[in-house]
Amino acid sequence: MTVQFRHIMLMVRDVPAAAQFYSSGLGLEITKLSPNMAELDANGTKLIIHGVETDPQTGGSPILSFHVDDLPEAIATLEALGGKLEGRIREPFFGKVAAVRSPEGHLLSLLQPTISS
Question: What's the pTM?
Answer without folding.
Answer: 0.69
